[in-house]
Amino acid sequence: MDNKKIEEIFNQTFPGLALLYRDVELSNDLISKYKVGQIIHERGFTDASRFGGGPTARLRYLIASAYGRDLSMFDPNAAKFGMIIISSGAYFKVLDVYEKDGKTQILLLNIPETGIELFSSTTTNVEQQVIEKGRRSFDEEINAEPIMTLSTDEWKERTQFPIGMDDKGIFFDLPTTNMEQSKHHQPTNEKPKSFWTKLFGE
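Now predict its structure.
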């Protein structure tokens, strides 16, 4: 893959990246299925919150995404949850699995479908920066008070499902052609600079 294509994919992924929160009470067996570097595919819509607060379950999905749609301006009910929706058919790279004080945070990077080949064979310094930011977030939030609205049955019902797998722990299929192509590419630490100052809006 040439540098121009890499830059296009990175500029679709990183500028405007926001951290979103989704707490789920999953079994240790399901949590253990997520592996760093793995690409997963979520068939349905992904509901998350822009609010952090203390974890309300044993697993926190921390989702780094530039694709989330903020529904608060359209729906007052969504506003109380800080609800952000990522469209169905989204792809994520598992950047980090971080355990602390009996709880686990799985950090997912929302990537475009065109980036599956690149992100499945590449680890960059930019991703490491996202991981460091994600761990700081968990360290700061783990002993905080939970957000009350995110502890309600209404919200938990919307977010009770695992991401990228069914409730039996079977991951949803990825595009076969892209994954087969990715095997022929070696990892690189090359990174375009055009998006660098836009990361997280900073």
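The longest strand covers residues 90-100.
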